[in-house]
């Protein structure tokens, strides 16, 4: 069976767990050579590398860079930027969540949201574009947050949502001005998604907020991600994958 991404190199930022890890496995299955970023060395990260090598026969490159505990300017000297320059497929799954009322959000919260939820994807896109332009081919996939596909009011996560909403502009701008180079850029805004990072209490709380009162499976998000990465005709799209979730949800009478 033909593999869609044979001969392509995919960089997955935030790929050590959750949606990023499942996406890494799926890309490997489609023939891509993987470069996976994670914040820490761990047995889980090592196990992911072994799974990918067993699945594809290709040993992935594992990059460890704790972005939140390092100065943002350290990116200039990091392997992460080098990987972005050389990738054919860029997937940015990383982005710290901030949930506080506006009057409680501290300076460090604003800084992290602005730098890592918006500026980091932007920097990686800027680094990746020249190489993709030279090859006349590229795929960029970004991840927003729940409810960040449009202007919305948030009582407890305005900093995070504001930064993630900015990715709509980045996505549309890449699509508009780089499509002629065979480059696509799309954005997924998932609903509340079940991953190993959530406690059972939080899973229960978030499930109740979702239509059908169940969380979305990360495998479902990965299916959508692959669909967008494979289809050259979808470019500049912001795709909600949240079952119609709304902050204004009220029971039908």
Which secondary structure elements does this structure contain, and how are they paired or packed?
Layout: E1 9-13, H1 18-29, E2 33-38, H2 43-56, E3 61-64, H3 79-86, E4 89-92, H4 107-135, E5 138-143, H5 158-178, E6 183-190, E7 193-194, H6 200-209, E8 216-217, H7 218-230, E9 238-241
Parallel strand pairs: 1-2, 1-4, 2-3, 4-5, 5-6, 6-9, 7-8
Helix pairs in contact: 1-2, 1-7, 3-4, 4-5
Q: Care to describe what's here?
A:
The structure is a single chain. The strands form two sheets. The protein has a seven-stranded parallel β-sheet with strand order 3-2-1-4-5-6-9, sandwiched between helices. A two-stranded parallel sheet has the order 7-8. The mean pLDDT is 90. Helix 1 (18-29) packs across helix 7, helix 3 (79-86) runs parallel beside helix 4 and helix 4 packs parallel to helix 5. The chain has seven helices and nine strands; from the N terminus they run E-H-E-H-E-H-E-H-E-H-E-E-H-E-H-E. 42% of the residues lie in helices and 16% in strands. It is α/β, with parallel strands linked by helices and 253 residues long. The relative contact order is 0.13. The protein is globular, with a radius of gyration of 18 Å.
**Proportion of beta-strand residues:** 15-25%
Given the structure, what is the number of helices?
Answer: 7
The largest β sheet comes out as: 7 strands, parallel
Shape: globular
What strand order characterises the main sheet?
A: 3-2-1-4-5-6-9
Distance between the termini: 51 Å
Total strands: the figure is 9
């Amino acid at each position: 069976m033909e593999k869609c991404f044979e001969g392509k190199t995919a960089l997955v930022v935030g790929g050590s767990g959750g949606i990023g890890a499942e996406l890494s496995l799926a890309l490997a299955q489609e023939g891509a050579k993987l470069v996976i970023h994670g914040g820490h060395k761990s047995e889980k990260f090592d196990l992911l590398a072994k799974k990918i090598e067993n699945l594809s026969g290709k040993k992935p490159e594992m990059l460890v860079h704790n972005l939140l505990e390092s100065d943002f300017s350290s990116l200039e000297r990091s392997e992460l930027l080098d990987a972005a320059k050389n990738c054919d497929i860029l997937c940015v799954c990383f982005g710290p969540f901030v949930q506080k009322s506006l009057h409680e959000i501290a300076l460090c919260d604003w800084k992290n949201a602005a730098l890592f939820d918006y500026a980091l994807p932007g920097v990686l896109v800027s680094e990746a574009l020249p190489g993709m332009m030279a090859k006349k081919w590229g795929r960029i996939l970004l991840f927003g947050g729940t409810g960040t596909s449009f202007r919305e009011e948030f009582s407890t996560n305005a900093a995070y949502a504001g930064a993630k909403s900015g990715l709509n502009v980045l996505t549309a701008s890449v699509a508009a001005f780089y499509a002629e180079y065979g480059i696509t850029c799309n954005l997924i805004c998932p609903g509340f998604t079940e991953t190993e990072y959530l406690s059972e209490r939080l899973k229960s709380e978030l499930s109740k907020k979702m239509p059908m009162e169940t969380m979305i499976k990360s495998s479902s998000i990965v299916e959508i991600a692959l669909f967008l990465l494979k289809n050259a005709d979808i470019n500049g799209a912001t795709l909600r994958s949240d079952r119609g979730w709304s902050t204004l949800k009220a029971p039908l009478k």
